């Protein structure tokens, strides 16, 4: 079975068709998905989805790309992380690609998420783009190794992957690994220890080949596994089994119970 470790089923284009998407997940043998929070105002929709469907989970957090939004605080994050369906803190991190100028507010927001994760004893879901040096630095300074987490939609170097793994983080590959110009990322996927890897769609974005340019959805995550398997000269089934076991280990779940 496959697990989509990062998707946004509450986003327009997906939210209106959740039942259809869940049916397609079942057909594709995608048994579970983690729905990711990006703002305080939209978090209730994410949580509602997770409570409405046994095979969906949620996170709580505020994405670094949202500048003009209600800021999270540690109490709000920790309080909502106590919900049984909330299994992680985020999406959090740093993005120096989309936003420029004085981004200290972004770094402070990241610090708050890390501190909340430590307090709640829940893993972090980390977004990093054009900011890997500061991302790793803040994770180290705030003691994120006490909870670990996932560097999601990974597009960085092998050295960044190693730095993350040294702090107990998993590395998650999205549809980008199937793109023609992503050879450096495929090299990371080939070198990655199998027990530290996750797969995701980041739906509705980044649909893998052969669906590139279309709206992404969790049922497409086997195509990510298939490309990784091709690069590693193994089977998609082996990737599915490993990443499913890794997801359960990271988030302290027993999906067979």
What report would you give on this structure?
There is one protein chain. The chain is α/β, with parallel strands linked by helices. It has one domain (2-251): TIM Barrel. Helices cover 39% and strands 17% of the residues. It is built from 9 helices and 8 strands. The chain has helices at residues 18-27, 43-52, 74-81, 104-120, 132-141, 158-166, 183-191, 221-232, 236-251, and strands at residues 2-7, 30-35, 56-60, 86-95, 124-129, 149-151, 169-173, 197-199. An 8-stranded parallel β-sheet has the order 1-2-3-4-5-6-7-8. α3 (74-81) runs parallel beside α4 (104-120) and α8 packs across α9 (236-251). The mean pLDDT is 97.
- Segments where pLDDT lies below 50 for 5+ residues? none
CATH class: Alpha Beta
Shape: globular
The N- and C-terminal alpha carbons lie at a distance of 15 Å
Count of separate DSSP helical elements: 9
Give the strand line-up of the largest sheet: 1-2-3-4-5-6-7-8
**CATH architecture heading:** Alpha-Beta Barrel
What structural class should be given to the helix and strand makeup?
A: alpha/beta
Number of domains: 1
Strand content: 15-25%
Instruction: Note the quaternary state here.
Output: single chain
Helical coverage, percent range:
25-40%
Tell me the CATH topology.
TIM Barrel
**Major pleated sheet:** 8 strands, parallel
């Amino acid at each position: 079975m496959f697990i989509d470790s990062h998707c946004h089923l509450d986003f327009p284009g997906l939210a209106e068709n959740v039942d259809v998407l869940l049916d397609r997940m079942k057909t594709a043998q995608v048994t579970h998905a983690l729905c990711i929070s990006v703002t305080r105002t939209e978090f209730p929709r994410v949580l509602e989805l997770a409570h409405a469907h046994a095979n969906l989970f949620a996170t709580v957090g505020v994405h670094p790309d949202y500048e003009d939004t209600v800021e999270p605080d540690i109490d709000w994050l920790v309080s909502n992380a106590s919900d049984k369906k909330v299994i992680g803190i985020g999406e959090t991190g740093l993005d120096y690609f989309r936003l420029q100028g004085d981004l200290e507010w972004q770094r402070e927001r990241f610090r708050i998420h890390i501190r909340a994760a430590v307090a709640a004893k829940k893993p972090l879901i980390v977004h990093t783009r054009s900011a890997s040096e500061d991302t790793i630095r803040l994770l180290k300074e705030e003691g994120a190794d006490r909870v670990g987490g996932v560097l999601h939609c990974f597009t960085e170097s092998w050295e960044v992957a190693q730095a993350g793994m040294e702090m107990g983080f998993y590395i998650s590959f999205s549809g980008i690994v199937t793109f023609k110009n992503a050879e450096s990322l495929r090299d990371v996927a080939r070198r990655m220890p199998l027990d530290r890897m996750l797969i995701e769609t980041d739906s509705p974005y980044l649909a893998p080949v052969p669906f590139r340019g279309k709206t992404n959805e969790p049922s497409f995550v086997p195509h990510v596994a298939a490309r990784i398997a091709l690069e590693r000269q193994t089977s998609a089934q082996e990737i599915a089994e490993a990443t499913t076991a890794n997801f359960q280990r990271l988030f302290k779940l027993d999906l067979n119970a």
